[in-house]
């Protein structure tokens, strides 16, 4: 079996993507801090909205996003957890497309930790 030159390049790109996602939550200039989240509406139509990446665990490939429990996306995800995320890095000319299943955390230890870690200004509702 021969190893093509494309394999090391693909590995390098994957490692760079993982690193970019890891630092994105703390870097307002990171192109993948804001992602488009896709879900399915109650009427079956696709829905998309921008969300802020709040955390990334590279070892489990888990992305952390927060939402107001009253938001439509929460009900959509509860009904059908299949979601997609889309990001665009203009500087690198890279499009990031991810698909997976979302898990909602309400009133559990993960939700409590996320709430406690949020900046106070993010918690203010008028």
TrEMBL record:
InterPro entries referenced in this protein's UniProt entry, alphabetically: Pyridox_Oxase_N (IPR011576), Split_barrel_FMN-bd (IPR012349)
Q: Which residues form the Pyridoxamine 5'-phosphate oxidase N-terminal domain?
A: 34-118
Q: Which residues form the signal peptide?
A: none
Q: Name one Pfam family in it.
A: PNPOx_N
- Looking at the UniProt entry, the stretches that span the membrane are none
Q: Write the protein's name.
A: Pyridoxamine 5'-phosphate oxidase N-terminal domain-containing protein
Species of origin reads Roseomonas mucosa
């Amino acid at each position: 079996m021969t190893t093509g030159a494309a394999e090391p390049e693909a590995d390098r790109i994957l490692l760079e993507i993982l690193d970019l996602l890891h630092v994105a939550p703390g870097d307002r200039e990171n192109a993948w801090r804001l992602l488009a989240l896709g879900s399915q509406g109650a009427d079956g139509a696709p829905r998309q909205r921008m969300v802020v990446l709040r955390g990334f665990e590279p070892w489990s490939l888990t992305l952390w996003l927060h939402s107001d429990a009253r938001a439509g996306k929460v009900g959509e995800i509860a009904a059908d957890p299949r979601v997609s995320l889309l990001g665009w890095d203009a500087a690198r000319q890279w499009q990031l497309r991810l698909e997976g299943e979302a898990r909602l955390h309400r009133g559990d230890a993960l939700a409590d930790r996320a709430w406690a870690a949020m900046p106070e200004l993010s918690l203010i509702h008028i």
